[in-house]
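Problem: given the chain below (626 residues), write out its structure.
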Amino acid sequence: MAINFLNNVNFNSIQSENIVIENFATDILAGNGVSGQIYWNTTSEELRGWDGNAGAWVSIGSDNDVLTFAGGSGGNQTVLLKNQTFSVAGTTNQIVTTGSAQTITLSFPTSGVTLPNGSVATTQASTDDSAKVATTAFVKTAVAASDTLAEVLAIGNTTSGTNIAVTSSDDITFVDNSKAIFGSGGDLEIFHSGAGSFISEVGNGSLYIQGESEVRIGNPLPANAAGEIYARFLSNSYSALYFNNTERIRTTNTGVQFVNGTISDNAGNLGATGQYLASNGTVLAWTAIPIDPNEKYTLPVTAIAGNNAEVSLTGSTDGVVSTVNFIGTTSRIALTSNDQNNGSITIDFPDDVTIVDDLTVGGIIVQQQNSLGDPVEKNTFAAILNMNNNKVENVKTGTLGTDGVNLAQVEALVAGLGSFQGGYNAATNSPALSGSSNVAVGNGDFYVVTNPGTLFTKVLEVGDFIFANTNIPANSSPAESDYIFVISDANIAGAGATDSGTQKGVAGFDSANFTVSANGWVQIKPLSRLNGRKQTLNDGGSAAPATSPVTRTFLNGLTTFEIDLADDDLFGTGALAEDVTVEVMQDASPYQTVYADVTRSGSASMSIIFSGNVAVDTYRVLLEYV
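Solution.
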C-alpha cells in the first residue's frame, strides 16, 4: 500500500531520509513504467529502469550490463564490463576476431576440450572443427502416471500393434485377491478370494449379465452338456427356478406358474378345501375363509313368561344362532306382540339411573322433569361436562352469584369498561382501525402506539393511546370521531423549526454542546463540534468483549488498524466511512501529524494502514463526520 499523490512532490532541496526504492521480484510484477522510473529487482538484486525507447525494463549499473570488446593482437581479446575486465587469450585459428563489430569466433583443438564435469568433448572431424560429447541414452519407461495398454505395448514395438492375443495354449493367471478391473472408475471387478469367486459392480452403475437367446445359472454348465441347473432366463420367453435340477417355478405372460409340485405352508401342509395361505405374524399358514361379511340378520321379538321378551338372532344361512332376553317388571319393560314375531319393547327407568361407563347418544336427549315440584328435580354432574365445541343455547339470565350467565348478560356487564387490545403500528395501520376492513373494537377498548405514523388526521408517536368511544363493528369504515386520541408525549425528543412549533418529549442533552430552555427548547451551543471524535489506534476490538472500535492486524509486512465508525463510542448506527475525514497523528508529545494509507469501505469501516510492524497506542486519529 502507498499514499496516492496526484501532483509532484517538491522537497524544496531538503533531504529525504531512509528511502527504500520500490521492490518487485520480476519485470512482469513491476508492470509498464514511464521513462525515468526505477525499481529494485529482488530476484537478481539489481537496480532496473524503464527504457522509454525500447519500452522495457533494463539493468542500470550491473556488472554484466554491457560487454565491450577492446580488440587485440594475435587472437587475444579483452572484454570490458562496468567494474571488471577479463581477457580471453587465444591462439591462431582458436579465438578469432572479425570486422568492426568485434565478433569472437571460438574453435577447439583436435585433442578435445575437457568440460567441468570431467567429460571430454572430442572433435568429430579435423576438417570442420565440430565437437561432440559422448552420452548414454536411456529409454523412457513410463509414458504417464497411469499408462494405457496401447502406450505400454507401443514402447519398443516395431509391429505397430497394440492388442494382446492369447492363443489356445496360453493363460492369463490372477492369484487370489488379484483383480481384473474394468472401467475408468474401476467399477467392475473380477477376482477369486481363495474361498469364492466374485463378479462385482462396485460403482454407481448396474451389473448386466446378458445372453442373446438364454442365460443359465448352474454347476457345471459346459456348452451342450448335462449339469445341474439353478435358473434359466430365456429371451422373449419365460424364466424358471429349479430345485435339485427340477423346474419348480416358471413365469408366464400373466403371472407365475408352479411346475412339477404344489403349494404348501412352511410346515409342508397342503391345507383343506376352501382355505388360503395367510401370515399369522410369524409364518404362512392355511386359514379358513371367513363368513360372508354381508350376512343379514332379522330380530323377531317374542313374548315369554311374565313381562319378559326374547329376541332371536337368525342368520340368512345358519338359522337361529343366538337369542337376547329382556327380563322386565311392571311399567319398566313392557312388551307388545303381533303373532309372536313382530312386537315392540318399551323400557322405562326408575327415578335415578347411574351410568358407570361412557354414554354415547347419536340422537337428541329430551329431558323432562318437574322443576317446580317439591322437592325440585335437578340434573347434577359429578364431573366436567364437555360440550365438544358446541353451544349451550337458551341460557336463562343468572341472578345469583353462582348462576351461569348468557352472552347478552356478559356484554351488558362489561360494556364501557374498556380493555387493552395490544399495540398499534401507525405506520402500517396494523391492526386496521380505519378503512373498510377495520377490526371490531368495543366501547372503551384501547390500543397503545408502538410505531409512529398517521391515523386519519392525527400524527401519532410511540406511547400515544387510542380509545374507542363507541362499539365499532368489523368492516364498518369507522370515522375519526369514533376514537379518542391521548397524546402521551412519551417520545424521546421532538424536532421543529421554532420553539412553539415543536412537539416536545422527555429527553436529556449534553450540556457541553446544547442549551435547554425552561420550556424544553434545545439549541446547539456555538462552536460545538458535535461530529468530531478522537480514537487511539489500539486493538480493543479483538478483546472479548470488545473494549474499543479498533481492531489491529499485521500481514505481509503491513499493519492495519480497522475502525468501526458505527460503534456507539464514535458516530453510531448509520455512519458511513465515505462521509468521515481523518487525520493521523502521534499519540504522545509532540503529537506530529503522520501520513498513512487510508481506505474506506462502502459501509462504516475505515482502515489506517502502515508499512512495517506498528505497535498499538503509537498513533491516534482525529475523525470528523461531514
